[in-house]
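note to self — DONT lose this again. spent like an hour looking for the file last time. sequence + predicted structure for the chain T wanted, 614 res
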Amino acid sequence: MIAGATIAVLGATALLQRANALSAKSSEWIDLTTGLDVPGLRNRWIALCERLHLTKEVTATRYWQEIERRHNEPQRHYHTLTHLSELFNYLDSNFGTPVQHNGAQDIAELAIFFHDIVYDPRANDNEEKSAGLFRSFAHENGLGTGLTDQVYDWIVLTKSHSPPTGSSEALRLFLDFDMAILSKPLEGYLDYAAQIRQEYIHVAHDQYCQGRASVLRKFCQNTIYVSDGFKTIAAEQRARENIQLEIAMLEKGNIPSNNNTPPPLEHVHHKKRVLLLGFGNVGRRCVELVLRGVSPSMTIIGISDSQGGLYNTNGIDLPGILEHKKTSNVSAFAAAASNGSSHSTTATSQALYQQCLESTDGLDLVIDVSPVNLSDGGISLPILQSAVSQGISCVLANKAPLVLDYANLSTTARANNARLLFSATVCGGLPVINVGTRDLRGAKFHEISGIFNSTSNYVLTELEKDQTVQQAIKGAQHIGIAEADPSLDIEGFDTANKLIIITNSIMGHNCTLNDVTITGIQHITKADIVAAKARGEVLRLVATSTRESNGSVAMSVKPMSVPQHSFFGQCNNTSMCVRFSTDIFEEIELKTKEEGVYPTSAAVLRDCFDVCGD
């Protein structure tokens, strides 16, 4: 048993022994949770409304839809309909008998349905708002004041789980039902703990470990369970054992998982400290994917845009900065941040990089998703040059640094044991670079060719439907694949940039834009389209790098007439593709269809997983 706030810090071996002991004792304790039953919950709600004489079926149905919608919100992982089902399982068991005998069945059911109906992990007034929403429901449907006040009080008390002196056994049981999860067998408890972490994914790792441990210690300052019913079983001891286990894990820097056995505590995985250069479409989608759970082991400590930088050594408030960026720049977020940690600002990306570099725990990874600047590499090139020279890995979606300085960046990275990954620079999510550099290692590449630009491909496809070039460009802009100035796409320069990256990294041939013969599609006419169609062909903007007999590489980007049913001919609309012609692997073709920026952002995170060792 653990008394007060004093928690013993167990060694790893002792902790795992304790975990095994808890697992072995699981069968001694009562667990009435059986999972989610949505039809059962709905029927129960309808029956409750009938008992309360809410005769309008539309009212009952509408509120059920609201209950279901809210409990399926994306930020919820534990506070879901499954949690409601489990509370009703307890209510229907022998534990619930005092509730029925006290005439509090309707009060308990209303409190269960409404107690978590408002849930925002970043707020501290969820219980009050949930109770307020119930009061609105009660007022709208003419429920009595006495019933309304009792349910309101029960919901608010789920914040403290400390009933007033003299409270009924029915209320105390309701509060214990809500805390019953703490005394689940180990597997279920670890699952719950992992779900809570997912709800607080916006909190940096170290902050979460400290904050969660503090909350758990408060649970143990007083008796956890307050009803006579729960005092007659081993729930108190079991809950305290579970909590002790989780606190010891958190103090070692580990987050509980939903496996039967906790992860080894001897090894604490270091989360990479990350600087994100650029917070436009690709950068924001990267953060959205991280918040959705697609996250390498990393903490974003700095974010910059064209107006300046934002820094927090414990991790940027990612949900907050996403919302803020809708109306303002990242540096203005510092004044608005309210997650309890310090955000500071810098005037430039370079200053932000320096601040990250000089921080106590340093910088491990730079992600460059800043705008392409082919004149001098923009704000990111000097930062990337400095980073790889100091052994800091870099992940790029920005093509410009590679087009302008590939040889230097790659050589410096290798010399300093830094990773330089850039699969997002070519064809979005299509793993062209990864396949060429990793999966086809050992091969000699005779030729690499493909359709690398979705905007130009979409325009050519629309021309086949009697659209003009300008109409097609507007269509591409409307679906979000074309920039306000699409000239780089239409004139072939974006395709050429990708060909340079492919040829440098996969074929090992040092090249620049001067080595590519470029012809865009801006001068394609209706007559060209009609003539190709008459031959059973279509026009595509094709990039090609061909190894000549003397070892040189001929590089070109130009419109080509290809058979309509060929690999290139079937690559239409927003699709992109690549063909590798090799000696030992022979010919390999890959194709993707993309209409947005998520695949590019996902490719950025794909490289981050590689760097972070996940």
